[in-house]
Amino acid sequence: MQFTKGHGTGNDFVILDDPEGRLRLTPELAAALCDRRRGIGGDGVLRVVRAANHPAAARYADRAEWFMDYWNSDGSLAEMCGNGVRVFTRYLSSIGVTGSPDTGLPVATRAGVVRALVGPDEIAVDMGRPRVYDTSTATLDGLVLPGAAVDCGNPHLVCALPPDVDLAALDLTRAPGFDRALFPAGVNVEFVTPGEPVAGTDLHTLMRVYERGSAETLSCGSGACAVGAVALRDAGLDTGVVAVDVPGGRLTVTIDESTCWLAGPAVLVAHGEVDEDALPR
């Protein structure tokens, strides 16, 4: 099986080229590929398949040729992955699929069709405007942290830390507790604290995230969009630019009257072949 490895601010993925949709990708195979000691290693699997050839995306085939079939590292499916879309687009660009310079490259996901603009260093994706819709809490090591529920095509809970809690000291080796009545399919939980001013932006936020299906990751693109939306709301702003620093680097979230753009680096680091029979089962 041929694969490519890529990452966006440390959020890393195993990319499988399967345009005709012939690969029998199962939860067990996805988890085995993402195993960091006995497989290739990654936060998830990105299968590159034509939308017309996948039952989850056929309805989008008239709007987007390519479908990002995204699997978390535990083998579960996810509706959206902001960094995944950017790495997926970088891969398409590497094989000559670039889209329009003006309107970008449309990509079908389980959350709908998004579009990406490819630059030499960064890729920006129109993620749609995040919807902040409720309040809830997360629990972590005895702390009960209030948060904002945000829909970015997938579910998020953004929790601002009190001043006496150090973001870097949080133990995210275990999943935070959350309200399963509000998030029956699970939730990505972001923990945030303000950062120093950054030139060219309205706000600067530091973030760590525990992703459903992948545990703590170095970055979460849709999570950065959720964090940006909550930060602007709390600052009394309807639109603006937010620098979101994650352990893997910096993402820039730009929210205007109609949508949200997520921008940052996306790189391909390796191409190779994996022996499927040798993977853990």
UniProtKB/TrEMBL annotation:
Segments crossing the lipid bilayer: none
GO molecular function, one term: diaminopimelate epimerase activity
InterPro entries cross-referenced by the UniProt entry: DAP_epimerase_AS (IPR018510), DAP_epimerase_DapF (IPR001653)
Subcellular location: Cytoplasm
Major location category of this protein: cytoplasm
Class of the enzyme per the UniProt entry, highest EC level: isomerase
Annotated site, Could be important to modulate the pK values of the two catalytic cysteine residues, chain positions: 156, 211
EC numbers on record: 5.1.1.7
Pfam family, one: DAP_epimerase
Reactions mediated catalytically: (2S,6S)-2,6-diaminopimelate = meso-2,6-diaminopimelate
Active-site residues (renumbered): 81, 220
Ligand binding (substrate): 11, 72, 82-83, 154, 188, 211-212, 221-222
Gene Ontology CC annotations of this record: cytosol
Pathways per UniProt: Amino-acid biosynthesis; L-lysine biosynthesis via DAP pathway; DL-2,6-diaminopimelate from LL-2,6-diaminopimelate: step 1/1
Keywords, comma-separated and alphabetical: Amino-acid biosynthesis, Cytoplasm, Isomerase, Lysine biosynthesis
UniProt record, GO biological process: lysine biosynthetic process via diaminopimelate
HAMAP family: DAP_epimerase
NCBIfam families: DapF
Subunit structure: Homodimer.
Family label: Belongs to the diaminopimelate epimerase family.
Role this protein plays: Catalyzes the stereoinversion of LL-2,6-diaminopimelate (L,L-DAP) to meso-diaminopimelate (meso-DAP), a precursor of L-lysine and an essential component of the bacterial peptidoglycan.
This protein's name: Diaminopimelate epimerase
Species the sequence originates in: Polymorphospora rubra
